[in-house]
Sequence to fold (87 residues):
Amino acid sequence: METFLDLLANYLFPITACAAMFWYMTVKDKDHKTEIANLTESHKDEIKSLDERHNATLDALNTTISDNTKAITQMTIVITQLSERLK
Fold:
């Protein structure tokens, strides 16, 4: 009986504990991979949404700059004409 208990304490329990830890880590690893895949997909969607909003903002900004450039050009023409009249 004492030999059996020695065998149990020295070999069977450590082997069983290692096997249980291996199984636990395998399950956790699969869960982690699934979680990371879901987060990656979610992140891709967020980046796509941000990119679309960013492009819309840039388009609006380009339009505004273009309109301002036209206005400044027209003001320059008017100022030039007025300064020629005053000479």
Q: What stands out?
A: The two ends are 122 Å apart (CA to CA). The CA atoms of residues 63 and 69 lie 10 Å apart.
